[in-house]
Each structure stands twice: as structure tokens, then as C-alpha cells.
Amino acid sequence: GGNPTATVIALCSMKDFNLAQETCQMAIRDIGCLEVLINLLDTEEIKCQIGSLKILKEISQNTLIRHAIADLGGLEIMVKILDSLDRELKCLAAETIANVARFKRAQRTVRQHGGIKRLVGLLDCDAVGSTSLTPYQAKDTEMARCGALALWSCSKSTKNKEAIRKAGGIPLLARWLKCSHASILTPVVGTLQECASTPSYRLAIKTEGMIEYLVKNLSSEHEELQMHCASAIFKCAEDKETRDLVRQHGGLQPLSVLLANSENKQLLAAVTGAIWKCAISEENVAKFREYKVVETLVGLLTDQPEEVLINIVGALGECCQETVNRSTIRRCGGIPPLVKLLTGTNQALLVNVTKTVGACATEPETMIIIDRLDGVRLLWSLLKNPNPDIQASAAWAICPCIDNAKDAGEMVRSFVGGLELVVNLLKSKNKEVLASVCGAITNIAKDEENLAVITDHGVVPLLSKLANTNNDKLRRHLAEAISNCCMWGRNRVAFGESNAVAPLVRYLRSNDPSVHRATAQALYQLSEDPNNCITMHENGVVKLLLPMVGSTDETLQEAAAGCIANIRRLALATEKAKYG
């Protein structure tokens, strides 16, 4: 009615209702009161603004009301209020923005009206690091907490992450990370872990010394704070230096301890994710072995959400770098649940579980269990999956299975259409799929009957088509596959006729010693055919192979010398025939 005192009294009366109740929230919206509350924000009466924001802060927990506030232009007014001199008013505006800006359009509105810079400004105060706060510092800390809450909501937008960085938010977040108050630490770490999905933030988290404080807060009493710290480490630990910092600051032990909180699935997902990424480093795997992490992870393999299982299986796969951990997985009964997961449909989980099963299959004892549980058949069936990551991971897993199975040749032949499926994958455009399939063919070709079958399916021309690749990983496995495929019929001649020999000679110019070794072995096998010897000689193979005869790698030595010997023998035979 135009009377500020009456308005404040009315607002106070409204505040007495239970505004957390949906009926009250919707009543405010339906009677048109929401427009009045937003209009009050645009007045000069601070008490009316505060009263209105207190109500809006409560009711904006409701999704429909959040959208309505954004539609009515409430966010633009709240962003302006962030310039107010009144601390309480700024806090309420920031907290309400934090509630409303949970959907993309609202996040965009805050950015476009200069809200990000203003919210970052709320973090800039002198209370950081103080243990006992003066009343003035306490107000500053509360203002920073509200600003961090709003930034946390806004940081779900990629453009807002960049806006926070440009506004100087990273050093301010790093400063607040050093404080001991969980109320502000939670939104600060929440913002950091949200922003850690971008490379610039991951670099900043490492270089600004934030890892130490993230590790420190893993031992906090607050589970939400622990979860966000673990989540930030999960996202940052792709980088080796960061993984080393986590270990150096003693972060691996608290992560191991947090696995016991298996009831809190969000916390468990973050912790298992952090362990997975940290386990990429061998030094960290050794520490995890001390803390019995593998045993705990195996115990968590059942009755978990897929989000958690992806991380658990990923961590087990990385821990398999150590032979002792592969034995531990078998001893603790981890193989049956892992094989069972091969029947799932989650793409990320299938990539991880195939890798882990493949790593475990390098042990003959484990391979017996995998075979008994029909694990190899399940891996083979995943080659039909349209996802190239799953195809590649399954093909890599099949390699040790063939290597360590008791009667590998018979096992492979028992899969109806299995060999044709493998050969057809050589038509893939994905380099990792091609390399993994070449690896599988290398092992399949060790059995003469299977080599005959894949030859009939056209393996020679398909391998020859790949010979012009510049990818060293593919070159190595392709050369190994060609070497083993030479052992059947006239395959050596066929490789020459398919123009695979000249490109192989170029592989010897690679900087990768493993490519040299595989190529020398392939060339040695191909040099058993006179026409191939001529092609090799024309492409300058002798000059490239001669230094390799003096290699410390005996396999490379023998293959290089054998190839040169075959070429020399052909030259001598030609001279003898020519000159008698």
C-alpha cells in the first residue's frame, strides 16, 4: 500500500509461515505475490529489500519458482544489489542467486549482467586465514561464503568458469582454501571441483599449491567437504605431477580410509575416482598395496551404482600394474564379479572392466577361472559393440587370454564366427582398434589351423592396406601380425604382391625401438621370398638394418642379421647364375 513500515510488517508475517512447504511456495506464486517481492527489490528501502530477499531465498529452493524468478527479471535486480554497501543485503542477494542459478538460462543471465565479477569481488576480504574472527571479519567471511555459494551454482556453465578465471577468482579461491571454517570451505571446494573439468583450472590448482589443502580437508569431519576434495583430486590427478603431490602431501592414506564410508554413495564415487586416477602412478600403487586398498575395492564390487563401479574397476585395472595385486584380486574372489560385469551395457564400465580382466588374464591361474566363467566368450562378443573404445579394450584383453589359455587354438575356434569378426575389424577407421586387433591376430596366428582360417577370410590384403600408417603403436603391432601370418602357405608372397614390403622398410626410420624389433622380425620372415628381397634392397633396407645387427636386443640382432643374410644369399645365387 505504499507504506514501508506496513510492507515490512507484512513481510515479517509471511516469513512466519513455513516457507519450506511446497504449498506455501506455490501459494506465493499463484496469488501474484512473486512479482510484488521482486518489485520490492527495486526500491530504495533496505528493510523491504532484506525482507523480500529472505522470503525469496527460502522459496527459491523450488524449481518452478526458480524459473519464475528468472522470467520476471529477478536475477538482474539481485546482481545490481551486489553493489550495495549493506553487507546483509549483499549476502542475501548472493544466496538467492545461488538458489536460482541452477539452470543454464539463469547462469547465462548472471554472467551477461556482470554478476560473476561482482560475486568474485565478495571473496576479496581480509578475514582469510584468521582463526578467531572479529565481528567485522565474521561478516566478511559470511559475505565470502554467500559469494562462493553463488559462484558454485554458476560454475556449472563452461563460459562462467572462464568468466570466474578472468575476474581473478582462482587466487581468491586458493586463499579461502587455507581457512579452517567448513561453512565456507564447502562452497569454495565445490566451485573448484566443478571448475577442475577445464585444463586451465587443473593447472592452477597444481601451481597455486591447492593440492596440499585439498588433501588436508580429506580428513575433515564434514562428509560433503571430503566428497568435494576427493572429486577435485579425481579430476586433477590425470596429471602425473598432481598425482605425485597427492602422495607427497600424504593424501593416499586418507583416501584409503574413506573407502570405509560405503553407505554414502556420492562420497564413495568421488573417493574411488580419486584412487583410480592416483593409481596411474606405480609409486602410488605401491602405497595403496600397503593400505590394503585392492582387498577393500574387491569387497565393494557388488551392489554399487554404476558411477561407483566404473571407478572401482578402473582403480583395480591400474593396480594390476603390480603382479602381486593381480594375485590379490584372484585370492579375494574378485574375478567372478568382474566377469559378470562384462554382460553390462554401461560403455565406460565396459571399457574399464575389459582392461582389468585382460590384465588379470596375464596370470595362468586367473586365466583358468576366466575361461571357466566363459569370460573369453564374453570378451569376444564385445568386439561386436559399436563403440570403438570397447572394441579396442576387448581386443587388448583377448591377447593375454589367448597367450595364457590351456588350449588356446581350440578355444578360439570354438567361437562361431569369431575369427571372421576379428578380421573384419581390420576395416575400422580407429587407430586404437586397428592396433589392438593386430595384437589379437598376432596371438591367433600362433595356431596353424587358426592362421589358415584367417588367411581364408582375407587377413593378408587387409593387413597390407594398413602398411602406410605413420602411427608407431599401430606399426609395431601390424609388423608383429605380418610376421606371424607369414608362417602359412604363400602368405609371404601375397604380402609382397599386396605392396606391404616397401612401407615396412620405412618403419625402420622410426624412433621407437619396439617398432624396429617388430619390423625386423617381419622383414626377416618376408625375406624368405626372393621377390620381397629385391623390393627390400631397392628401398635401402640393408643400410637401415646394418646398425641394428649391433643392437643390445638379441631378437632385433638376429632378425636384422637373418634378413641381410637372406638378401645376400639371393645376390650370390643371382651372380652365380649370371656368371657361372
From TrEMBL:
ARM repeats lie at residues 73-115, 417-459, 499-532. It comes from the Eukaryota. Pfam families: Arm (PF00514). SMART domains: ARM. InterPro entries: ARM-like, ARM-type_fold, Armadillo. This is Armadillo repeat-containing protein 4.
